[in-house]
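HOLO CASE FILE
Compound: uracil
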Amino acid sequence: IFVKAEGRDMVNAKAPEHSLGPDYRPEKPMATVSTKVPHDNVHILPQTPQLIALLTMIRDRNTARADFIFYSNRIIRLLVEEGLNHLPVVEQTITTPVGRSYAGVKFQGKICGVSIMRAGEAMEQGLRDCCRSVKIGKILIQRNDDTCKPKLFYDKLPEDIAERWVLLLDPMFATGGSATMAVDVLKSRGVPEDRILFLNLIASPEGASNFAQRFPKLRVVTAFVDQGLDEKNYIVPGLGDFGDRFYTL
Ligand code: PRP
Ligand code: URA
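Model generated. Tokens follow.
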């Protein structure tokens, strides 16, 4: 299959997986797409041209903060919509304005969001945009800059959290230490593992694999699994420090 990439005609042996674009365009751009992971409980968003373009924007070191926020929010919306697809529904038949019935479904069960502060708070608005007046709990966990080990400082969760589905929010999933600590807090409050959905933008393959094995009933919804971690346990190619880019840079 011939595709045009970086201005050159080249043979793309992996074209169906690694080229992007609509079927009516014979020449398609090349792009790196998510690494696959062999765990059924890790769900990677479809690697569409839109998603890859949004990720390209937020990964770019030259992207200004306003654009970083705007494009991150678009990805967060996709993650929330996909996460909600994992919640149970029941049949519901309604009548339309023209008097016909429609066999549909409605959401069942109660949900709440829990953000891992600080960066996870950036995902709260995306959840609120889809679920009006959703309850949101907070867990403040900070990764030590030198050891990369997480430390738990604070949590404040809805009192009835054990009866709810929990959408756990954190954009970056590096070693998985912070997410693991947050899940341990949720489990200690009675939330069953299979009612936790962890939504995140970029995961490392090692973080995702360790976590998926440790919590086999918990579901992860991620936009992208990257190549790995560097010597400082930053995700590569990654996007740098999400919290800094969203809040302070
Ligand atoms: C970042 C990120 C995750 C964590 C990921 O937060 O938002 O919580 O690191 O790393 P891990 O998977 O190796 O634990 P950080 O502690 O830097 O705080 P911040 O949210 O204030 O940026
Ligand atoms: N936290 C971030 O914000 N980025 C990384 O790559 C790792 C941890």
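CASE NOTES: The chain is about 30% helix and 30% strand. The longest strand covers residues 135-143.
CLOSED: yes
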